[in-house]
Amino acid sequence: AQSVTQLGSHVSVSEGALVLLRCNYSSSVPPYLFWYVQYPNQGLQLLLKYTTGATLVKGINGFEAEFKKSETSFHLTKPSAHMSDAAEYFCAVYTGGFKTIFGAGTRLFVKA
Amino acid sequence: DTAVSQTPKYLVTQMGNDKSIKCEQNLGHDTMYWYKQDSKKFLKIMFSYNNKELIINETVPNRFSPKSPDKAHLNLHINSLELGDSAVYFCASSQDQRGPQGQFFGPGTRLTVL
Fold first, then answer.
1. Which of A15, A93, A100, B25: disulfide with B93, CB 3.0–4.6 Å?
2. How large is the average pLDDT for residues A19-47?
3. Do B99 and A43 touch (CB under 8 A)?
4. Is the separation of the CB atoms in A105 and A6 below 8 Å?
5. What confidence category does residue A27 fall into, taking pLDDT thresholds of 50, 70 and 90?
């Protein structure tokens, strides 16, 4: 069965530091992978997606993620954290039949 | 020019009542979804409609009944509300004719059952 695991329910970084949010997936078919961000009291917003082609994908707000098939990973990174990046981040995998499953989420804290 | 809208944003009600949440998308998407997000932020698919046809119906109590009058609307009716129904409910839509492209989410409806 397909699944998504986000390592670390909470990640704390200093402003200006590297952001790394980890995501591992299992999928029986070539995966379609997504990262979403949720700011407080808002809906989820698509940050970036991997469907086919280039394994390094760039998204909005300076985020990027790399699809590594051998490691079944799709980690999200940003070179320099900003206070406005504080939010909940969700990794997701499309499992077929119009269904997407989401990881449990990682809360990102950014310290001044 | 809101892409996916939901009403109401907040809903506070007593146990046993019946309530509805409405969702509309103006993106021209073919597929719409209802998700439930619990207090720990866990997001779970409830229903999905494609071109007004129900295609995903997860293990949700039959007190929950979705209705899609047209491709742009997906409503959720809940009968005999229980304390455990308290959560944030999100509507979403997507257009996946060329493979999954990701979903657009509404702002959510926070349901509190007293």
1. B25
2. 93
3. no
4. yes
5. confident
Judge whether residue B73 has pLDDT over 80.
Answer: yes
Interface of A with B (CB under 8 A): 32, 34, 36, 38, 41-46, 49, 51-52, 88, 90, 94, 97-102, 104-105, 107
Of B43, B102, B107, the CB nearest to A102: B43
**From the DSSP assignment, how many helices (H) and strands (E) are in chain B?**
0, 11
Banded pLDDT at A1 (limits 50, 70, 90): confident
A105–B42: do the CB atoms touch at under 8 Å? yes
Q: What would the two tokens of residue A59 be?
A: 């998204």
Contacts of A54 (CB under 8 A, 6+ apart): none
